[in-house]
Amino acid sequence: MAGPTILHADLDAFYASVEQLLDPRLRGRPIAVGGSARGGVVLAASYEAKAFGVAGGMPGWRAARLCPALRFVPGRFREYQPLADRVMDILGDVTPAVERISIDEAFLDVSGSTHLFGPPAQIAELLRRRVREEVGLPISVGAARTKHLAKIASQVAKPDGLVVVDPEREQEFLDPLPVGLMWGIGPVARARLAERGITTIGELARTPSGAVEQVLGHAVGARMSALAHNEDPRRVAGAGRARSVGAQSALGRQPVTRELVREVLTQLADRVAGRLRAKDRAGRTVTVRVRFPGMRSVTRSSTLPGPVATTLTLTEVAEQLVWQAIRDQPQPEPEVTLLAVSVSGLVPQSALQLELPLEADDPRRPGSAPGAARWAVDRSVDAVRARFGTRAVGYLPAAMPRVRTVPDEFRELAEHDL
Ligand SMILES: [Mg+2]
Question: How far is the CA of 308 from the centre of ligand 1 (A)?
């Protein structure tokens, strides 16, 4: 059975959380964005206000009555989009298959990312931590085998949580939940179902589809009936292209030196780029992951102007990203325990097409001798290996002293369905 590789990530009380982020005096307090005690409509409420029953869509006067300490703020709408975009960028660091469905929520298909970032729950925690640390906002994530389950799981996880739906126990998870959590059941549909005594998803599942269609209309009824039975074949948009090739190396504890980083990345890039070339592919997005002692890890990724598949270019890009990740640490990190490299955003790349431009005078530019030379070297290496095996020839960082402790265990990771 497939794993819970679809994530639904949803910022918590987004507008209200942004207001609390921008104005520390509002933190920990019940606030409403929009409306006033005299009227208007509340657009969003902080969790402190939700605890009093205040909710988005509620008239201001009613919200004020429910929560006398409620503070109304007008909302700085120009701030919302750029912050949400930064969150989406972080999500995009773990998979190219990110389907944004509103300003503050998205589905992700991470089936092609587990080799690089670990199981879905670990990816979800990584994302939640990064959004919290780098943007300052709380985000909840649901992880499941289908979109419907993932979206429900993120709602159940709120505020600021993670829920993973065990693929073996999906119906068990769904049955006791209120129908209102289903994507597509609004207040009107919920009221109509309640009139017929249907309040939980399990009750909806036990009602014949024909009867549900009478209540909700043919199309919606049939769809909700199927969802209540846990039937949801929808894929995350872009998931078909969610392919990447990656490799990682666990290092034990190693002092961070230029030599170590270059040697390990050369070997990783060799594996990744070699596999790309073997499939006549190249990719534009390079992602690295650096793990420090204590299992804390950071990722950095960069989307290049053109696809890469040469070992040397990939090594250089990965090296820049790794140093950037190390430099960005709040405290100096003298040791690393794991390095990983992956390439995504893959496109067909025949051997005759050379690598695309980086900078006009960059030696990696196609047509420039070094760019062409890189391809020629790689192709020769590939040809030798095809005849004599992978170990027959390799890349060693030239003119670099050998590091004493070479990572003895090179974990070859699953290549994705190219
Ligand atoms: Mg939200």
Answer: 36
Output the CA torsion 270→275→279→280 (10° steps): -10
Distance CA 158, CA 176 (A): 17
Percentage of the chain modeled with pLDDT above 70: 87
How far does residue 377's CA lie from ligand 1's centre (Å)? Answer: 50
- Residues serving a catalytic function are 105
The residue among 232, 231, 210, 229 whose CA lies nearest residue 221 is 210
CA 63, CA 50: separation in Å to the nearest integer? 10
What CATH number has the domain bearing residue 290? Answer: 3.30.1490.100
For residues 77 and 160, membership in a common domain is answered with yes
Output DSSP code: residue 309. Answer: -
Tokens of 330: 């709040």
CATH label of the domain that carries residue 211? 1.10.150.20
Number of H helices, E strands in the chain: 15, 13
pLDDT of residue 66: 97
Give me the number of domains the chain comprises: 3
Q: Which residues pair with 339 in a beta bridge?
A: 249, 290
Q: Please answer whether residues 227 and 219 qualify as being in contact, where contact means their C-beta atoms are separated by less than 8 angstroms.
A: no
- The DSSP output letter for 133 is I
pLDDT at 411: 29
pLDDT for 22 beyond 90 = yes
Of 189, 353, 323, nearest to 258 by C-alpha is: 323
Range of the domain at 267: 244-412
How far is ligand 1, taken at its centre, from the CA of residue 53, in Å? 17
Q: Do you know the residue count of the chain?
A: 418
User: Which amino acid would we find at residue 220?
Assistant: V
Residues 97 and 165 in one domain: yes
- Cα(13) to ligand 1 centroid in Å equals 6
Distances (CA, A) of 93 to 108, 165, 390: 11, 23, 30
| CA 10 centroid distance within chain | 12
| Residue 401 pLDDT level (bands cut at 50, 70, 90) | very low
- Cα(179)–Cα(75) distance, integer angstroms: 31
pLDDT of residue 347: 81
pTM > 0.85 = no
Region of poorest pLDDT, from 21-30, 163-172, 389-398:
389-398
Strands 410-411 and 244-255: antiparallel
Residue 356 main-chain phi, psi, to 5 deg: -85, 165
